[in-house]
Design goal:
about 220 residues; alpha+beta; globular
Length: about 220
Amino acid sequence: MQIDLRVLELLSSKLCHDLVSPVSAISNGVELVEDVGGDVVEEAMKLIGDSAAHASRRLRVFRMAYGRAGDEDNLNAKDVKQIAEQYMAGGKITLTWAEDQPTMALVEQRGFLKTLLNLILFSEEVLAYGGVVTLRSATTDMIESCRLEIVGRNAQLSDQARAALEGTTPIEELSPRTIQSYMTGKFAEHFKLKLSYDQSIPDRLDLSLSGAEVLVVA
């Protein structure tokens, strides 16, 4: 999969933006210890520990979602589930992922778990006010798929996110707000997976991922 330089720049900006907060908090904690010490040491050490754990969780997700780690043959659903749950923990979004999801037939498809993780990251863009993401199995026309039910206030695709997901947005018009949508669609296309969505119900977006050769919009 070839990526334009602008896409790499936007993706790098997203990674730095998502990591700057916990890393800055670590620096602030260190400064507290150095400048004040005494009674604030315990508080500062907790800040450092929590922020380091936060940064570590994000790095693990990014490594698997965007890096070569997500393409490894030994990648399994249990590891991806754990990383995704840890990433969402303590935030505004609740992730509900049953132990038997996705099915083994889907897991065995190259790039499926990597693309699924990108879909979960994409749900953050949809749930700006928080909400619930639930993974379920689904079968339509004898085709097995994994469905993400994204429920929350205004849980709908914006026109910009939809165009980026479908890959119709010109590269020069992509932005930090749409880069995750674009990457998710590109991973689905690269791994020949079918990605479809349904937003006919207010405050709910259903995303389905299955094996196929084209991106389908419902």
